[in-house]
Amino acid sequence: MGITNANKQINVDTIECDGELKVTIALSASPDITENPTDIVLVLDRSGSMVGSPLFNMKKGAKAFVELISEATGGAQEGIIGAGSSIGVVSFATEATIDMPLVTSVELLDEAIDNLSAGGFTNHADAFIKAIQLFDPLSPNVKVIVMFTDGKTTAGMPPEPIAAQAKNAGIIIYCIGLIGSDGIDVNVLNEWATAPSESHVAITPDDAELENLFKDLAVNITKPGATDIVIDEKMNADFVITSIMPPSKGTALEIQENHIQWQMDKLGAVANEGATLEFYIKHIAKAGGRKLVNEAISYSDNENNEVVFPEPKVMVKCGGTVISEPCPVPVEVTMEGCQDFVILDAGDICLEDTGRILQLNATIKDVCPGKRVALAVIITEIDEKCLEHPCGMKTMTIPAHKFCGCKDVTIKNISFVLPEDLVNGEKKSACCERKFKVRFIANYIDFGYECCDLF
User: Quick one: how far is CA 114 from the chain centroid?
Assistant: First the structure.
């Protein structure tokens, strides 16, 4: 069978800017199906929530699965499942039915799948019971259940004990889950499936992906076990590895701070077998956003198995924080009592960075006499995604004027120093265009009535 499943997942969807997360890589492998005849029962959900495209795409996936098993076992020309293997079909809604016992005829299997119609509740326990009944306990064949469902249990007894009974009897269980209208409990599927669940459970929110999931599983089931396995992963440069747990099989080495290599001598060479590796990574970049966890991941083995791992993403919350330059070292100045002025030689001053100066003038309309005005000026910068980032704010008090009647008051030379690295901590060239928004807020401070004759 080869590599029957490969998975990569993270334990959280969101972290803070300097947060950590756990990465889990999982593989499962089994011996070649042509050398190890296998009885497979497709257990297919036909409850009411499967009406329409979910049922259509599930049928396409199940029939593609049968076709690929037929090809792998050398029976395609005769329209059979060859090499001593067989496939059966169980479907379920409020109750489960055996739609086709274990047979080798591709035509009969396709007909049984095509005849399925959707309606009713979801009885997983009865589905497992009917699937187990199809297997001959005296047969030496490998026994596999492929459970497909799009929802939670809504009828019948709890299915967990039945699934556990099947696994205790040596039956391998794979679960394919569609996040349907009734929702799906991934933890339940993980509990039903053969360990490790990471390599025996596949989930999709899109029923159009069901055909590919069934095909991938069929291709993996028919390949031989793997030897001399090397998984080489380089993390996104925004992350570093902080710790590596001992893998369940093989050895894992940290090549660089964001580069890890997992090696195994063999996996699934004589029986179905799974392996997992867990390690922790930390975000070290200044900018946030939705980020891929890995930059690249490669797989190789002696059997030339082709393995594709998922590419999980995590949302990093760095907010709109501006990473400012370090504060300059102050120069101490003392003014003695009754001293009118001080002359200071500040010494050498080094240029810390490139930057620009934004100087603003503003006119406040119709300011009445005898009233001071509180003025605030807020500067934000617009990045390439049209998001605003704070750059600075100044507040000042505009003195009251003594003219008779309200008049416009002009304020000149409101200056802001804008370093070139304000937006997300990214360094900008002095020749780059920069876009800003300027907001003015003005309010009276004095509210008492005054007569012009007082001035």
Answer: 35
**Higher per-residue pLDDT: 69 or 448:** 69
400 shares a domain with 288? no
Residues 300 and 371 in one domain: no
**Alpha helix ranges (H) inside 300-340:** none
In contact, 75 and 33? CB cutoff 8 Å:
no
Total of domains in the chain: 2
Euclidean distance between CA atoms 47 and 53, whole angstroms: 13
Largest Cα span, the chain: 114
Q: Are 207 and 58 in contact (CB under 8 A)?
A: yes
In a domain, 339, yes or no: no
Q: Which run of H or of E encompasses 399? A: none
CA 268 to chain centre: 29
**What is d(CA 163, CA 157) in angstroms, rounded to the nearest whole number?**
12
Amino acid 453: pLDDT = 54
E runs forming strands in 118-258: 142-149, 172-178, 201-204, 226-235, 239-244, 251-256
Residues in the chain: 455
Bridge-based pairing of strands 86-92 and 20-30 is: unpaired
Terminal CA-CA length for the chain: 98
In the chain, count of helices (H) and strands (E)?
Answer: 6, 22
Q: Answer yes or no: is pLDDT of 327 > 60.
A: no
Mean pLDDT of all residues in 335-341: 82
Q: In terms of residue numbers, what domain contains 81?
A: 2-227+263-317
Q: Are residues 309 and 381 in the same domain?
A: no
